[in-house]
Amino acid sequence: MSIDPITLCTRCNHCIEPKSAHRPPPSHLLRSNYFPPKDELDDMAYDRLAFDVAIREAQIRYSTLQESGKECVLCNKCRVRLEANVDLDLAKREAERLSGLMDELSLARRKMTQCAEDYKPFMVPVRRLPPDLLEHIFYIHRDNDITLHMEQLSELASNYPLALRQSRLRRVWLPSPFSLAHTCCLWRDVVLSRPRLWDTIVLNIRHLPRAILLLLRLWLRLSRDTFLTVYITDHVALLPRWTDKDCHHNKIVQNVLALLLDHSHRWRRASLDVAWGCLDTAIRMHFPDLSAAGASSNFPNLESLDVDWLSRSGIGESTSINLSFLSIWQHSPRLRTLSLPEWFNEMELPFSQLSSITITRIPDSGTWILPMLRSCWNVEHVALIWSFFRRRDQSMNVFTDYTPDDDDDIFVLPRLSSFQIRFDTLRQWIAQLFYLVITPRLESIVDAEGSPIPTTDIIDVLSGIRFEGWPENAFLRFLSRTGPSFSSLRSLSLTAIVLSDTYLMKVFELTPNLTDLTLYEVLGQNNYPPIWSPQLLQRMDKGQSAPLLPKLGSLHVAVEASFHFFVVVQLGIAMVKSRVGSKSKLRTFTLRCRSELAKEIPDIVMARLHGIALEGRLVEYEDLAIYAPSVV
């Protein structure tokens, strides 16, 4: 805007003059560290206020002149007055001058307003945040971005083969520091000078960009000497369109792994979900002598390792592949968490120092289970599951009983606190496991198909599945040795296992300190006796003198045969209501059933369920206690 003065009074030449032209900084400075000087901002604020006062005074005088018979002071400086009996032509000319003056002042004021708007992007508070605070914000943003991406990858991996054909992931994923570095000079300086923003490397080599190796080299250079968290995922080898001609893809994957292995001394956590051939070739190229590599500590800082090799011959068909490359992790002094797709006795890994072990693809044979547990005598968490959730045959699954021998070698896992297991997959060996293992500190037993599985159609998936022949005596014996006075077990989850109410009473009597219970009946079949019988529900009612599970704080149930007693007759709802309130510990309750049964719930029952939740006595409450997905 112009800095020429604007005349307010022609008699004394009183003027108003802006202190400066008020031109906003060029927009390209937004990408720099520029922040407007305080004097410049103060001058703009002063001029805007002065012009506002001048416009307001001119408007008052103009309005006064429009009313005949009134005298008016035309200038506050020279105090010239226009008398009430002055010539009307003089008053008209003065009014026209004031009108033009107001237009000129308003135009200048609008330009100041536009200039102030242009200044706003330069004045946002985030541009004045100190670098240390910016680093902390960027670090949180990066972690959230990585978490979201890893959830997408997990969803992809848990839905073979459909998700492989219908990808919902971005074609190329770049971590947030790359975009933050393109915002402004200050942010770029912070991002490029903070190695911890680059210490997590996530590469989904599903659609490889040509610059993937350049990107990885930049990542490694910017992370400097910080410890690395590495996530490498490659599912292209399992795509239906994959052919042997696509060897270029394998070459790039091997180069990516080779680059990362050059920095093996910096690895802290690693997850390698790639084809076995690529992994084997890359490791053997980097460590030509595997025996020598296994004898030295190439991964001195590695704490967590998740390896999921995928065979071109098919998932779960790796019995014929050579896994000797695993020996490179044999001497990893800090390794505590290990996840493998399968177990073989000849594996050379530091099992005795592990605190957590997960086997994600369990074969039908379980001969390896006890040898594995014997070698992991310091383990605190064990998960034996099948990572690819699949609908099994609807036929009955029968557990194989086991008769203990005097020569059986009972062993102790003194630190085991969490045991997650797929009972049906290990049905031939579960009884032997219960008889021979002592776990004095065990706190959690979770069926891998229980409530922890984050699938929205769990009821439909479990419909029609049942497991009979549960080793009742072995499990009771196992529970009786879980801790001093049977007090250590806190969480128990059982799914689709055929059990009787009397047997459950015995289980609950051995677990008086249980705080979290997940119990799913056999769904879709009504030819089994109800688990939640009136006798069991009465024993669990808090109104009893010595109720079962007095410390229960979280209850998740799915009902089928017990639907009548639990919901229609409301014995189960009455039991839940007796356990909520100021003197009770129940804070979470979830009731699930098939959609066909949910339609039969009487309105009075629904009202009572609403009442339990709305009275505020349950902190968490899911779907108004009824989870009823549509039947596929």
UniProtKB/TrEMBL annotation:
InterPro entries: LRR_dom_sf (IPR032675). Gene3D superfamilies: Ribonuclease Inhibitor. SUPFAM superfamilies: RNI-like (SSF52047). This is Uncharacterized protein. It comes from Moniliophthora roreri.
